[in-house]
Design goal:
Layout: E1 5-10, H1 17-24, E2 29-36, E3 38-46, E4 51-58, E5 65-74, H2 77-85, E6 90-96, E7 99-105, H3 119-131, H4 136-146
Antiparallel strand pairs: 1-5, 2-5, 3-4, 6-7
């Protein structure tokens, strides 16, 4: 990783490598990572997706975790992602391969009630989890969160 690069933690539709390629171009590394002490919620309204999209909510419970992916991207690409997300990223500690790293991630401070995401959004997200090598048990866990 060079001084021109940062870690970006994706947990929603940016898990999808095709979407990330369209948004930021190439990256040098991507790998599975977890955000501990948080839960996945679908409580951010997106006009682009026509419904509720993913967010993470802090719980401080070490047993709670959000599955995602770390991308090593050029620092300047964070500004591009911020345009898509509509907010600035937060520096967040995540864990990958048993190592804690600081990563940029987008955490929305919305208090909207959680609901079900659009099927197209969920499919893009689940495809991304599969692209990063997550097992079917994780896929099923995310589906369950999305449908409750």
């Amino acid at each position: 990783m060079t001084k021109d690069e940062v870690w970006y933690f994706a947990y929603g539709s940016n898990l999808n490598m095709g979407q990330m390629m369209n948004r930021v171009g190439e990256w040098t590394v991507s790998k599975r990572a977890e955000l501990k002490g948080h839960k996945l919620k679908f409580n951010v309204h997106s006009p682009r997706w026509g419904g509720l999209t993913a967010n993470v909510v802090r719980t401080d419970n070490p047993d709670d975790k959000v599955y995602g992916a770390l991308y090593c991207i050029l620092r300047e690409k964070v500004d591009v992602l911020s345009i898509y997300e509509g907010i600035k990223p937060t520096d967040t500690p995540v864990e990958a391969d048993g190592v804690k790293l600081q990563a940029k991630t987008y955490i929305f401070k919305r208090s909207r009630v959680s609901g079900n995401p659009p099927e197209a959004y969920l499919n893009v997200m689940l495809t991304g989890l599969r692209q990063h090598g997550y097992p079917e048990a994780v896929i099923e866990e995310v589906k369950k969160i999305a449908r409750t």
